[in-house]
Amino acid sequence: MLKFGRDPADLSSLVFIEADRLHIKSTAALKVMQQAGGVLVSSFASLALCIPTVVRDYVYSEVVAPNRYLLFGRKEVCRRPTTAEKSHFL
Question: What is the pTM of this model?
Answer without folding.
Answer: 0.71
